């Protein structure tokens, strides 16, 4: 009677631990596949499509054109001397206006480039933090599945030992002389020494 109970318990333990080891091995494989195929997250820079505004420079150009036309009309009324004497001033005014417009546009582009670079640094930090957290989570899951797998294998080996002990001739006698010793009890499995690859 005791031997039958031992065999039944050992059989249940063997099945349960075998299922645990198989399930953990499958979970470990799935997590390893997910880790190997991990895709880093793409984040879009807020300044990617930002462009230089020409509204201000267009206004400056219009004002410059009107001012130049007014100056030229005034020079015409002054005759030849007025035209020759005032023409360099008109040219200097146009040159200054062109330089102001160029500086205005350049300042905008510099600002956009700076903002873009700052946002890229911010996005890089976010990506690295998220990737590190996700990869650490997958690695922890793989370690936990590996421990569960080896726990199941060890439990199955112990159950197999109990099963073998329950089926031995001594185990059939029952009573005080019955032996339910586990022939595998001295055998220790180190999960770091083996790996299952299917």
Multimerization status: single chain
Give the topology string: H per helix, E per strand: HHHH
Poorly predicted runs: 171-180
Query: Number of helical runs?
Result: 4
Can you tell me the number of structural domains? 1
Overall form: rod-shaped
Largest sheet: none
List the helices and strands and how they pair.
Layout: H1 2-36, H2 55-77, H3 79-167, H4 169-173
Helix pairs in contact: 1-3, 2-3
List the main descriptive attributes of the protein structure presented here:
198 residues; mainly alpha
What does this structure look like?
By secondary structure, the protein is mainly alpha-helical. It has one domain (2-177). Helix content is 77%, strand content 0%. α1 runs antiparallel to α3 and α2 packs antiparallel against α3 (79-167).
Brief sketch in words of this structure:
The protein is built from four helices and no strands.
